[in-house]
Write a structure and sequence with these properties.
With 462 residues, the protein is mainly alpha-helical. It folds into 2 domains: 176 residues, no CATH class; 278 residues, no CATH class. Helix content is 69%, strand content 0%. Helix 2 crosses helix 6, helix 12 packs antiparallel against helix 13 and helix 13 packs antiparallel against helix 14. The longest helix is centred in the N-terminal third of the chain and has 34 residues. The two termini are 16 Å apart.
């Protein structure tokens, strides 16, 4: 049941009616049942995995509540992390490791392979659960004694399968001090849902057709113009797809009275890769910073340790996204760029200068090159596409003219949001301005929204 389908909106309306009409005490049960039903619509048997991980992490935190600092408390943490990483490792990385072992012993690649279905969203809900247990261990989070409340935190359907990764202290602050959203919050939530739909159906899915056609057979589209247009098409697809999902998740949660953190802040306006990662998938980048980079030592032990920690963090961040050497290289590429920028002392500036548009274009180019490894089916395809980006005949652009104009309009809106904040002002605007914006969004959806078979969100595979 995808967010951008009629079935989901029918489901959400039913949940909304039950949540607001039944007694307040029933609210968490309604949301928990709805969340499990939502997940079971994909594959019912994998809800057992969520049950097991929820039980393990709840038990580990409850043990830590009774134990003083020391070995036994650490053992409870290790048990929890081992369970989460063990399940994640088996489902996501077993076949990757098996293929590499097979290569080492010169046997067929599938000699040790298993037919494993990757549970949807496993990377997100395991990271979310791990952050809770680690925070409890550190003494930064109160232990949640009601298992229903904790189960709802793990399974809450708006962000269950693709984030954002919500910290426990933020979720339970909303749950335990819940209040009905006011008019502005409902207007903002509705605006985010409609805007997310527009991003997904009118932009992401349109560019998905171009990106899929190019990456399916790169050799069929010779020339650097074709290569760049295919790569940039995916750059746009993944941003509008993932940020569209996030907008919808934040909007749906806000309508229910929950406040999720911002996950994207116009990343393609970044003037460096360091700034890009402060704007892109913010809940993951801050998770990696707080639970990996800083525990490794961060920048506290000198320059070379800082570079090492950046590389290790991004390599593991790349591997988190997928089990292939392409993702390892993608993470290493970003880690190397972050280290180089730290070496060159490239700093962020609040105010824009005359040369910043060139820095934005250069950063976008660097990010787009990284997406080759993210999207290409094999490492060989990645290397071939990289070669086509910088060599060979010019070829031809794969885009239609109207798509270019649409992207320029989106760039203008992003620049206006950066400097003026027009989107955040809309809920406070006069009714005619708000209604006009919604009408324009819906008109664009009707005019150019992709009307074929529903395309899953890109990050659902992680």
């Amino acid at each position: 049941m995808l967010f951008h389908t009629p079935q989901f909106f029918a489901f959400f309306v039913v949940v909304l009616v039950l949540f607001y009409t039944l007694p307040r005490a029933a609210g968490r049960w309604i949301l928990l049942a709805a969340s499990y039903y939502f997940y079971m619509c994909w594959n019912a048997k994998f809800v057992l995995l969520i049950f097991v991980l929820t039980g393990i992490d709840y038990t580990a935190a409850m043990w830590m509540r009774r134990l003083p600092a020391g070995g036994k408390r650490k053992a409870a943490l290790v048990m929890s992390l081992s369970a989460n990483l063990g399940f994640l490792g088996f489902f996501k990385y077993y076949n990757f490791l098996a293929a590499n072992v097979a290569w080492m012993f010169s046997v067929p690649a599938d000699a040790f392979a298993l037919h494993i279905i990757l549970p949807m969203g496993i990377s997100f809900h395991t990271f979310q659960s791990m952050s809770y247990v680690i925070d409890v261990y550190r003494g930064e989070q109160e232990v949640i004694t009601d298992i229903v409340d904790y189960a709802l935190y793990i399974a809450f359907f708006p962000q269950l399968v693709a984030g954002p990764i919500v910290r426990a202290r933020h979720f339970f602050a909303d749950l335990y001090h819940w209040r009905a959203p006011d008019a502005r919050e409902i207007l903002r939530g509705t605006l985010l849902v409609v805007f997310g739909l527009l991003k997904k159906l009118a932009i992401a899915d349109q560019f998905a057709r171009l990106a899929d056609a190019f990456f399916r057979d790169p050799a069929a589209h010779p020339g650097y113009l074709a290569a760049w247009s295919g790569v940039i098409a995916f750059s746009l697809q993944i941003f509008f797809d993932f940020s569209g999902y996030t907008d919808m998740a934040i909007g749906l949660a806000q309508i229910l009275g929950f406040h999720f953190p911002e996950n994207f802040r116009r990343p393609y306006l970044a003037r460096s890769i360091t700034e890009f990662w402060r704007r892109w998938h913010i809940s993951l980048s801050t998770w990696l910073r707080d639970y990996l980079y800083i525990p490794l030592g961060g920048n506290r032990h000198g320059r070379w340790h800082t570079y090492r920690n950046l590389m290790l963090t991004m390599l593991l961040g790349g591997l988190w996204h997928g089990a292939s050497w392409n993702f390892v290289i993608w993470g290493g590429y970003h880690g190397a760029l972050l280290a180089i920028e730290r070496l060159l002392s490239i700093r962020e500036h609040k105010h824009w200068s005359l040369f910043d548009p060139l820095r934005v274009a250069f950063t976008f180019g660097l990010a787009s090159i990284s997406w080759v490894f993210f999207r290409a089916a094999t490492l060989r395809d990645s290397i071939y596409i990289l070669g086509r980006l910088f060599t060979g005949p010019h070829g031809h652009i794969l885009w239609w003219h109207w798509q270019l104009w649409f992207v320029l309009a989106a760039l203008l809106l992003a620049a206006l949001e950066e400097s003026w904040g027009w989107f955040e002002r809309l809920p406070d605007a006069p009714a005619w301005a708000y209604a006009s914006a919604i009408a324009v969004f819906l008109f664009c959806l009707e005019l150019i929204g992709f009307s074929g078979r529903a395309v899953p969100f890109v990050y659902f595979q992680f």
